[in-house]
Amino acid sequence: MKKILLISAALLALAGCVKDEMYKGPSNIDKVAFSPEAPTSIAPVSVTATVSGLQAVTSATLNYNGNSVPMSGSGSQFTATIPAMADGTEVSFTVTVDNEAGFKTTSDKFTYKVGDPATDWTKLKFNEVYGAGADEEKFFELYNASDFPIKLTGVTINKDEELTWTGIDGEVVPSKGFFAIVGAKGTTPRGFKSGFSSKKSVLIELFDPKGNKIDYFQRGEKMDSGEWGASLSNNKGSWSRIPEGTGKWMQTEKITVGAANSTDGKEDPDVKQ
């Protein structure tokens, strides 16, 4: 009888071990969601994974475009963030979960494409112009008042009604930021091809890629001959919009190429507002 009891106890212990082993297995990734569902270039993307299983999760990892970042959380939900990407970027990602039994589970692949809304060209403005220094120092400065970067590909500038500059791929004005076109008469690789004098009448016009005029700076008028370049008082500083992009054109002593404008200036009666 004692022998039978010992055998029974051993079988029960073995059954218990088998039962424990049966509970060991991979975790399930039940759901992966990301927000916002239509990502733009100005905001990161939050990824959330919902996990189930009998084994506790020891780590969760978000893998995207060759990068891996640990996910935070516990129990059944884990989150991580994909940083904001440039407009047009294609992003693919997976979630990997490791559990205490040593099993690894990887989710299906998810993809999205970063897409900004159509450019609001009314938000692109001339912000500062300077024509008093040497040709390589003269500049036209643009300001982007919108919440999204503005690509300058195909944007054109006319000076005295003739084309003087065309934007190319890779030239971008950041949101609430500046882009300076420096150098007159071809003195710099991406300058403007015309001359520009701070003591002559001038018309500088800005056009979107479809040829619509979106802004201008005008000082003085054409001469009787129909040409620009009439003599005017010399401005040794620059003309700046105060405040940025929206205010009146003011003569400013402080020259702030590619940066925020001076807050002090005086009106120029020759400048069209």
Structure description:
By secondary structure, the chain is mainly β. 8% of the residues lie in helices and 40% in strands. It has a six-stranded antiparallel sheet, with no helix packed on it. It is elongated and about 95 Å long. The termini are far apart. The relative contact order is 0.12.
Uncertain residue segments? 2-11, 14-19
Q: What is the percent of helical residues?
A: under 10%
Number of strands: 21
Average pLDDT works out at 93
Work out the radius of gyration.
32 Å
Strand content: 35-45%
Placed side by side, the strands forming the largest sheet appear as 16-11-10-19-20-21
The best one-word shape is elongated
SS-derived structural category: mainly beta
The SSE string, one letter per element, is: HEEEEEEEEEEEEEEEEEEEEE
Report how far apart the termini are: 110 Å
Q: Helical element count?
A: 1
Main sheet summary: 6 strands, antiparallel
Features:
6-stranded antiparallel beta sheet, 40% strand, 273 residues, 5-stranded antiparallel beta sheet, elongated, mainly beta
Q: Gist?
A:
The protein is mainly β and 273 residues long.
Write the layout of secondary structure elements.
Elements: H1 2-22, E1 28-35, E2 45-52, E3 57-64, E4 67-70, E5 72-74, E6 77-82, E7 90-99, E8 104-106, E9 110-113, E10 124-130, E11 139-144, E12 150-151, E13 156-159, E14 162-166, E15 172-173, E16 178-182, E17 202-207, E18 213-219, E19 238-242, E20 248-252, E21 266-267
Antiparallel strand pairs: 1-2, 2-6, 3-4, 3-7, 5-6, 7-8, 7-9, 10-11, 10-19, 11-16, 12-15, 13-14, 13-17, 17-18, 19-20, 20-21
